[in-house]
Amino acid sequence: MIYDCAIIGGGPAGLNAALVLGRARRTVALCDNNRPRNRVTHASHGFITQDGVTPSEFRRKAYADVLKYPSVQHYAVPVTEIIKEQGTFTVVVEGSEPIRARKVLLAVGLDETLPDLPGVGDVYGTSVFHCPYCDGWELRDQALIAIGDHPRIFHIAKLLFGWSRDVVICTNGTQVLDDEQKRQLSAKGIRVTEQRVAALHSEQGKLTEVEWTDGTRLARSGGFVMPQWTPHTVRFASLGFDTNEWGGIKTNELGESSVPGLFAAGEAATGMGAQLITAAASGSMAAMGVNTALMEEAFQE
After folding, report:
1. Of 176, 194, 225, which residue constitutes the final position of a domain?
2. Tell me, what CATH number does 72's domain have?
3. 178: which DSSP letter?
4. Cβ neighbours of residue 8 under 8 Å, at least 6 residues apart?
5. Which domain range does residue 45 map to?
6. Separation between Cα atoms, residue 252 and residue 163, nearest integer Å
7. How far is CA 156 from CA 12, 129, 212, in A?
8. Residues 219, 175 share a domain
9. pLDDT tens-digit map of 122-133
10. Which of 38, 117, 204, 278 is the one with CA 20 to 30 A from 124?
11. What DSSP designation does 264 have?
């Protein structure tokens, strides 16, 4: 059997794409090994009707929606290789026969590496997060800290001012903020320190203090860090697609890459972390692009 489309990745982008294609009566192979980036998150926010849903519950409900369409087949296996040959794709998976498809949609998300901060693993996803839009409301009016050695920490600092007036910015031993940026933050009461973090202290996942390398401590109850993200799409770089500055796959307005028949959606296309709602919307648009391409080919036969 040759599927109309093989979707690699079962996050919000891949699942929404499968839903759209299933409703378009396209045959779909949905490959997902159940390793979402947000699996440490207790609740997801910012998606209308789904605000506060746990990642596991979101996936359960999404799969119930998707798999009621008989043309969608779920393969709960890792994909090891994708080969394009003679106008179709061969998707090599572990423990099963290869899957053949006319189109491939990559929605594989990101690998997330936390910064080297002792104790960050104890608080990440409970009281320390990476996205103010996702979790700022839950930390509103608290004593917050944002830690990052990238210039984008200035943008995060300004964002956090909307949720709390007690914000400290730590550049962790680096000088990524210039004097004018420091002046702007100071004018709003946002403190900046360039000290290096020795440890994040916590109790049962709740951040309590930040310790600096000089031994001093600062009481904080929540915060934000800047993980490093590596797109899973690097595993399929042999396909030869173009990428953007973040490592995401460049696509046109319909989600198609520089490789004909290869589409991308969600974090696979941006190379950056995305909210559920934006990833799902991206998957929907890419699925329409896949369906449009298949339709045009059918009318040229």
Report:
1. 225
2. 3.50.50.60
3. -
4. 14, 31, 79, 82, 91, 104, 105, 106, 107, 108
5. 2-112+228-300
6. 36
7. 25, 12, 21
8. yes
9. 999 999 999 999
10. 278
11. E
Section 16-24 average pLDDT: 98
The 8-class DSSP code of residue 9 comes to -
Confidence of residue 212 (pLDDT cuts 50, 70, 90): very high
End residue of a domain, out of 172, 193, 225: 225
Place of tokens 């730590």: 170
**For residues 270 and 15, is the Cβ–Cβ distance under 8 A?**
no
Pair (259, 209) in one structural domain: no
Same domain, 47 and 102: yes
From its phi and psi, is residue 210 left (phi > 0), alpha (psi between -120 and 50) or beta? Answer: beta
pLDDT digits (tens, 9 = 90+) for 77-124: 999 999 998 889 999 998 889 999 999 999 998 888 999 999 999 999
294 vs 12, 22, 228, 287, 299, CA distance in Å?
23, 14, 36, 11, 9
- N residues, the chain: 301
